[in-house]
Design brief:
Radius of gyration of chain A: 23 Å
Shape of chain B: flat
CATH architecture of the largest domain in chain A: Beta Barrel
Order of helices and strands of chain B: HHHHHHHHHHHHEHHHHEEEEEEEEEEH
Largest sheet of chain B: 6 strands, antiparallel
CATH topology of the largest domain in chain A: OB fold (Dihydrolipoamide Acetyltransferase, E2P)
Shape of chain A: elongated
Strand content of chain A: 25-35%
Helix content of chain B: 55-70%
Structural class of chain B: alpha+beta
CATH class of the largest domain in chain A: Mainly Beta
Oligomer: heterodimer
Order of helices and strands of chain A: HEHEEEEEEH
Chain lengths: 140, 620
Amino acid sequence: MYGKKVKLRFLFLSLILIVLILTVYIVLKSLEDNVVYFISPTEIKELGEIDHNKKYRVGGMVKKNSISMNSDQISFIITDFKNEINIKFSGVIPNLFSEEKGVVAEGFLKDRNFLEASKILAKHDENYMPPEVREALKDK
Amino acid sequence: MLNLIGNYSLVFALFVSLILIIVTFINFKSNKILNFNIFGTVVLQFTLICVSFFALVFAFIYSDFNNAAVYYNSHTSKPLFYKISGTWGNHEGSLLLWLLVLSLFTLIFLFRSKKLLISFRILTIFFQQIIIFGFLLFIILTSNPFELILPTPIEGLGLNPILQDPALAIHPPILYLGYVGTSIIFSSSLAALTCKYVNKDWATDIKKWSLISWIFLTIGIMLGSIWAYYELGWGGFWFWDPVENVSLMPWFCLTALLHCSSVLEKRAILKSWTIILAICTFILSMSGTFLVRSGILNSVHTFANDPERGVFILIFLTFLVLISLFLYFKFNEFESKSKSFFLSRETAIIMNNWFLMYFLAVVLVGTVYPIFLEVVAGAKISVGPPYFNQLIIPFLIPFLFLMALGTKLDWIKTKKLKLNLNIIAILILSILISFYIVRNSNTKILFLSVLISASLYLFFISLIDLKNQKLKWSQKISHLAFSTLVISIILNSIFSEEISVNMKVGEEKIISDSIINFEKISKREIDNYTSIIAEIEIKQNENKLKFYPELRLYKTPETITSEADIKTNLFNDNLLVVNYLKNTDYLNIRYQKKPFMLLIWFSTLMLGLGGLLGLRDNLK
């Protein structure tokens, strides 16, 4: 039938193909597990089912007079002027975090009105606004 | 006046570029001579771009607010150093810097390639001019740094304060030297392809350029990381931020190219693969510029959101890709099979290349996927560090072992694999040490100890290899550096500790084994900002450390930055940052222990040194 060389080459090529398919599979799998979705408070209300193990990023404005804090925790409300969501957070708060300014909070949803954040992002300077925040505020 | 000079030299340079494209093309087609005209014109072009660049620098130094770029990015109260660095702290200026480096490298190539084939040199200049022409057109049409504002404003808007930093003042130029160096690799490989000049001489030449780019890219990435570490106050040095990824991708590609061009140099094989890598490296650098400059990526680096710019770079990029594909399929000679055996240095390098390509693919997917998904499905997502860690770290283990054992193999065929006692003894030693380290940490993961074993193994092997006369110093040093880099990064991530708390002045808090004492606060007016310095003492067991972290309130533009107070010693960094909480008496305090930070920077520098040694060998 075929020579030894051809067989070897065929074996080699199929090995490469298998490795390639496996790699693509792990990459996609890992991507699916680690992607963080960005949503607005309104979209949270419209969410069908809440996955408690999935990270979300919620963006909008910090509501006026909503910030309250003690030594190890800060809580505030993010609004997109249609709906609101309560945020609880302990950790590093960016310098430019303040009332009536854009903010993005990343963390796990406890329910439709409450997100426990593990990270807070604010703007880098006064004029700069993360595209996500701008997007969320556009419909205002 | 300055604006006029700058503007007209740019336009003039565009014409020169057009002339050069035509002249080099004719020369290549007909007489194949590289005459004085070409030399002279390239020098002229470089001079014009220089004039234009320095016109902009002077406009910044003298705060000529007539110029829009100066008005938007400078301020009279800024220190001179940052006025100058402000030149490339904005979109327009940074592109002009790109262009300056591009034409400088073209000039250097022309003067340093006299031993090579003439038609190859002409053609390289031709491709290089196409790139320069594209960039000139881009600058003049969409981002002219000499746009005027009338009437002249009295005061500028100021440079973003987080960019007012020494590391960041030199980070862009260094990184650009790396990026732009790859343009020569690109042009020269297209030229070599067309002239059928893909041989050992060409490999030696392209290796030189890859080394130059690689050294600058390595140091440039490091400077950016150092800046992120102490200025952003996030307490880390790498965040898998899209813009960081964009600089890492050409780095992977270049590293692969460096190794692969050695094979081409020694054995005259892997020609097609070298060409593909060379083309990819530049395309990745260009797409990096595209992603960062077009405002698609959301980060500190994004200067302006102008879709027109994005479209232009995208068209230019597509054009370059199409040219390369066309030339590749038209001229590439698929090589006849040459004799190589499985157990050889070549095999080790090819496998190393595969791993690098895998890392590259992971980073590429993680960076591009969010953009892709937004365009296709309209969903906004971000890909976090876990993705990258999960996919890269496990594959680092075989990669490290390969790096350690690859140097033990000979070119073409290894007759007898000397599995001497040393190699096995070192392996056992590394495993023992890593188990000891992991046992003493809070993380009890078997996987981690395997990873540490692998990196320790590479470390010991490279240490012993230092005495090996057969190996090159560049290789010995950079492999050793890579192993210490991996070890220090792992140890850093295992042993880092963090406390974060909100406190008022005068308060004292006890958190686990630390006593934090917020003693006082003082205020000072400095040049263009108000400085608030807090005094915080941290007591841990017997150790007392006093920190003076700073907050800077800038007026133009109105911004607040935190300056971390970092106490560095050989094995450990203690870092304390405070953040400002508007309308409250609280300050947000974050205290971190970061072991082996100094070792991380040191390893990266050593990696660069390895490259430098390689360059010395190459230029001999």
